[in-house]
């Protein structure tokens, strides 16, 4: 069962632009392997004003805190570049 | 290239905005963005064509990157089974072989679509058919509509290593992969490999990082990559780009909605997300990594994918000159234009003999001058190598003349003695002061351009004949790109949002007189949009609509055949432009007028001008009735009566000078000679109007100020326009006089006057040279102010003179043959005014328009000699609303008819047409023209049952009577048709003909006008200026001409049936008072003040405006009240009298006292 987190986090990107690590609850979580990005479209016409993007950016990645067991997470990047840790898939 | 691993990524698959309803970014923006992102290559691969190709190549040259060209095409197999969409890319450095194969592939797709029913705009293949959408489901539906090329044909064209075919997600291979059917995918790929030459097939990997399980996700991409590895084929990486930046994804959504004709919320296959943008190298590499990582690929897979992409880009880099032939003009081969020897020699020969014919009557000096000018012009022609061009154009002119069609050259080409001598043009240039250099000089960078006006009704015949004469491999029609404008933009934006049609219609009706991208500002500024602005503030959806409409504005919407452009070239034409069928069936280039010059394509504008048809019709009618032939081109240009008519401002119907503004200017200018018409037409242009040139000219012309020539050396140049600079030719001569730069260079300066950044350079040069040539600083200051202020405005005198000729000719016809001329106008409808007004003009000129009659009405308007010796014009059959062409043709063919039975049998009209004919009186011939019996006639026709007897055309009619029963007594009254009851002949005509000929539709208001004190239009001219007046009538025209000062002015022309229109002008303050009515009310009452303009002209400044129907209703109500009051008063008086006579009568009658009370109340009120 995924666990909803919905917390603002700081994300460190690699030179290629992939998330390499994020800091959540003061702990750094290191990304393991190639993270995958997914862009989901929105029904923007139901909202006010023209959006700058019609999709939301989600990154699904495996990460672990220190030497702990790795979890699968969904990170969401907002239009303004800020990051939200959306889900913990366990 | 060594950038495979660097910061550059080569996009091989990009749709520009010229992929209409699909791509949304213009090629120029794409090329700039690619260059800014560090790319050194960019391909544009538009859907079904090369619509944006030339613009793309030029944009790449400007941005300093290498262009690639391709097209997204549907392919089918030998059994017409669809194979999806592929990208076909042309190979470069092949001396044009790759580009030629691409052009031919696109043309073949358009010629070979399995459905040939479509016409016109079918060409773009994306019009709402949704056949080839982004979705996987739709790409494999049968290729029943839209262009498609057979794989065998594609294989042929791909030979000699000319083309590469990319099989991507929309190909049959990609679709099999998406179905997870790897076996089928491999089999289909093998089929492609067998069918196409080795190395012509490449797999295209696309991934938009969509959610797993949807189109554009990583999984199919990685499987496609695996298929490439397994089959040993190269794979290339693309982003199947539809827009430049992520924020344009919204616009692409709108494009999808417009393509599928569905609201966004109902799209079955909307774009999966907003990732189809022109991503920079880093982002592309990131996606590629995810693809490789998602599958089982070997270590080098990522670098190999990027390297193969880069290598294909190298292979597909086109050289603008050697591959595409940019900037190299190609003329038809000499033998095609009937020349056996050297074209230059032939041109000299024809021109010399033309001069001998045309000038000898004007004396030897004229002949000498013409020969000298010819020598001057031929020097340039030889230098530029354009001899074949002139021969080609004159050959076309000969073809048209040979068909007996009126022809008139227009444009700067009229300034050439060579064109005159070749009879391409009919205006003599030397005496008219026209300049060759305005047309052609070594300094001019562009190909010459000669426009030919012909009779509009014969234009298609001409095209076919030109195709026949030159061969269809050398001729093509030109296309034009239609871009979104206000109404279309708001409709498609509204559709996308799912707004109700009715609501969109109401908004769309208000979308005019401003640009859609300024929608929001217009809402704030324009008083007539006040109500809409309020709604927008209330509604989130409407607010969105405003911005979405602005997004669509100016985007290409569809292509259609250009109204006049014909491309003439040599036999290589179809290697240099793709063609598709136009609406009229002839092939049309996918390139538009902006692409002609860069592509070295010679374009001839053969423009259908309705006035030429109208004049031809008048000449024909005159010939039919009298046997006399009029040669309009030989009519003397100094006919006093013609100028008298023009000066009277009764110019309705006359070419170029019939608009309200022109009427006013003609009235002020009072033309006396032909050159005055040239000046008049040239003055009535946005540039001169904005610069107040008409007023300056008129003041000098009428001696209010003396002409200011600034310097005696300028006087010869400026004398003809009283010191005011009006013509381009004058500016050129002034430059030449001031600097001695020569007229060719002078024309370059003239054109640069419109570019503010060029002005300092020009000024410096001019000052230096002019000082040296003896002009004082003061004179130079003065003339420079004039020249700099002139800008690029003004008009080529060549244009003005070319327009003035048909102006004069049509005025001459109106003066001397009004009936024939008006018949021509009514048949071909050349002008700005609706037909009702021409009918009204005919009435005023004493030429009645005769009602529709199946015995005498023809397919066009015919002049009839009337019993009293005068002439009338018979209404034409096509005016009958709802009748079919076949029905009308049968009527015209079988006239006259012996009886109603005969009519019914031979014409076999549909019930609807039959009844309409009866209603308007066209069948009155069968009831002895007794209008009273029309009820019977209509009832009789409606009672007819069963089918008419079909008789062959050559067979005699059955002489079986089909009499209209005649009723009398009580029954006569009973036979009233509801359709006729209470309706006047005018009502019926308006209903079934949209045109009232019996009486003017305003006649029924005349009593009202009299009561209100409305001034009839015919008497307006007698009023002094400043008189307060009421005007009324039906709106005939609305103009918002350009005005000095920039504030919008609205001219409304009102027709009340008494004479010419009265023109009312509403200035800004009045517009605010009147609001939307200024555009929306059609029947109106106006209060205003007269304003005299010149000797004859009067116009009215409008102060307020009412809907005429409202006024009529109010007056009627008032009458009713007054009538009631009068009746009450009368009965009260009678009662009082009775009381006086019988004092004993009781007063307690409630009825009577009640009435008295009411009366008292009414009186005290």
Description:
The complex is a heterodimer of chains A (90) and B (1165). Chain A is an all-beta fold and 90 residues long. Chain A has one domain. Chain A is built from no helices and 6 strands. Chain A has strands spanning 3-13, 19-24, 27-41, 55-65, 71-77, 83-88. In chain A, strand 4 and strand 5 (71-77) form a beta hairpin. The termini of chain A are close together. Chain B is globular and about 125 Å long. Helix content of chain B is 45%, strand content 12%. Chain B has 49 helices and 22 strands. Chain B folds into 7 domains: 27-166 and 180-315, TIM Barrel (Alpha-Beta Barrel); 334-469 and 594-607, no CATH class; 485-554, Arc Repressor Mutant, subunit A (Orthogonal Bundle), CATH 1.10.10; 693-794, no CATH class; 845-853 and 875-993, no CATH class; 1003-1113, Nucleic acid-binding proteins (OB fold (Dihydrolipoamide Acetyltransferase, E2P)); 1117-1164. In chain B, helix 1 runs parallel beside helix 2. Chain B is an alpha/beta fold. In chain B, the strands form 5 sheets. In chain B, strands 1, 2, 3, 4, 5, 6 and 7 form a 7-stranded mixed sheet that branches. In chain B, strands 8-9-14-11-10 form a 5-stranded mixed sheet. A 5-stranded mixed β-barrel of chain B has the order 18-19-20-22-21. Classes of the chains: A mainly beta (90), B alpha/beta (1165). At the A-B interface, strand 3 of A face helix 9, helix 10 and helix 21 of B.
If interface size is counted as residues with C-beta under 8 Å from the partner's C-beta, which chains form the largest one?
A: A-B, 22 and 36 residues
Q: SS-based structural class of chain B?
A: alpha/beta
Percent range for β-strand residues of chain A: over 45%
Alpha carbon gap, first and last residue of chain B: 97 Å
Oligomerization status of the protein chains? heterodimer
Principal-axes shape call of chain B: globular
Mean pLDDT of chain A: 90
Provide the structure class of chain A: mainly beta
Given the structure, what is the number of helices of chain A?
0
Distance between the termini of chain A: 7 Å
Order of helices and strands of chain A: EEEEEE
Write down how many β-strands of chain B occur, each being a DSSP E stretch of 2 or more residues.
22
Q: How would you characterize the largest beta sheet of chain A?
A: 6 strands, antiparallel, barrel
Major sheet attributes of chain B: 7 strands, mixed
SS summary, helix count of chain B? 49
The spatial strand order of the largest sheet of chain A comes to 1-2-3-4-5-6
* Poorly predicted segments of chain B: 1-5, 114-143, 1145-1165
Query: What do we call the CATH topology of the largest domain in chain B?
Result: TIM Barrel
Radius of gyration of chain B, in Å, reads 36 Å
